[in-house]
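User: What would this chain look like folded?
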Amino acid sequence: MRPLWTCLFGLVLAVLVGCSSKLDDVRGSDAYIKDVQFVGVERFPEKELLAYLHMGETSILPWKDRYAFLPANIPVDAKRIVEVYKAHGYYDAEVVSITPVVKAGRVRLFTRTPGERRPGKAIIKVVVREGEPTLVKKIELTFPVGRPGVAVGDPRVGEDALRRRIALQLESAFEVPKLNRSTEQLLETLRDAGYAKAEVRESAEVMPGVGATVRFEIRPGPYYKIGEIRFEGLGNVPEKYVRNESDYAPGKPYSPKLVKKVEAATYGLEVFDTVTIEEKPSESKPGTIDLVVKARPAKPQSIKLGAGFGLDPVRWEQRGSLLYTHKNLFKNLTRFDLRARAGYAELPSMFNPQEHGPIVKFEPTLRQKGLIEKRTVASLSPAFELGIWEGYQFYSPTMRAGLSRFFSRFVEAELAYNFRFVDFFNVSPTLKGQDSILGLDFRDPYTLSYLEPSLRIYLTDSVLRPKNGAILGVVYDIMGLGGDFSAHRVRPSIRLYWTPHWRITFAGRFEMGWIVPWGPRGGAPIDMRFYLGGADTVRGWGLRRLSPQVFPDGCVPGEADCRGIPVGGNTMILANIEARIRATKMLSFVAFADGGDVRAGVNQFALNQFNYSAGPGVRLDTPIGMFRLDVGFRLNETEYARDQKIWAVHFGLGEAF
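Assistant: Here's the prediction, encoded as structure tokens.
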């Protein structure tokens, strides 16, 4: 009987890897292919050519496929190599030889069968004579006489525009994949220009070693526009609001992209499980195609419960959370989200709770698109929070009412009104001193009324999960419409994303912030000043620790038991860069570098005191959200670092930016 520990190890490995070895599934083989060496192959990268073959290189990673060495596959792969070359214009290519070298595996220990061997390793040497490619000598486009159905002078389907969509080039190798891609791209161009029933027929005359003549017969067919849009299966969802998402389409030239856009916009309302579109030529209006949008309503309500913890060098917290959502409240597409969180926080840690207390946040939000104007989203969010930070605890009822709207696919503008009431308790005597760095900025309690216009420009491939492009933004808070403070707070930012390979994404962020007091009540409350440090900003620092601080009387910074209280600043600068490497569908690794600084003065910068940190991170993308673990290390010493650890561990949710 196999030892219990080997069974358990095999079970754990199967769960972690999630797949079996190809070698285990193939009968008649006692070796796997370690390396495939190509000699004389210049047209193809090694990995591209291997993708067409039975043979492959076994990875040292246990979750990758293992390729069994089967002698019967050698003649089959030889024929495949020749056919691959022919498909890419090399009609004289031949496989000179395929030579395997097999090394037997060593005897296994602790097995049920005495003398059982491990699988051996095979190295295969493939020698290829490519020859010369057959080149494309002529590309012809033919059209029906008079080109019936084509709009006169339509540059989108003119010969020049169509030729630009042909992947084959003169004096380049004649390749069947490029021929097929050319046909697809010509069809796409015609149909996107309104020719829904367009046809393209390709043919080629090939004389190996002499040249190839390629012909495309273009049959545009009739020109169509989008006609009526009808909806079926909406259930309790009002058609008025669904139609608002696609009312731009009728009358526009037909294109598959436009149909997909209507489908995506309808599905994006988040109240349907499925959305499909049926295209029907109109019986009453020749030259138009009607769209029938068929939907299946989703359950309007959902509830999620969760428990979690926060981990930071200066703050630990344990919490439970609830998210209740109703996506069609009042049957007019009003969305209601209730977020509730309750727990307990300890500063600086659970094992050394110098300051601790309950944390509660209750935040209901109502949102509706089309209440004021069909493209505008109105929102209302009253909230209540009970919390704790270094130096004080507080409770705060707030109110936020906003209007937001996308102007085209790229520009989002928002205007929000905010009201805050904050009452502090268990306040450190250090913060109450009027001669402290805060001066009149610490008022207990306080009220604040302010407007918050913001603008974001999305020059990215996706709004929610960008992979390439840039996001430009600015948020401007105008405090002083009532209450105890008046100031301008401006936060411009830019975020950059680049994905050179589907497994690797580089991301960067640069952000600045200014608070400029004005009037007799000039200033900003302590909880709205700028702070850096923590899981989302400069990760070599504890939460909010990269900030101006105040110290108790008689406390000398840098000495034991002398711990300052962060009080924020009026000027901030922040920069981040990350390399995100995707290992599996769920698991990713990150290398990051952060920098930033916060100053108490207005428009005050101290670049010689800029704070740098770097480190690794791990991401686990699950159905309930992305879990993030980062370890940051400070790279330099500044005046803020006197009582700080040189490293910090952060556990959070979602990407840092």
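The longest helix spans residues 176-192. If you want, I can go into more detail on any region.
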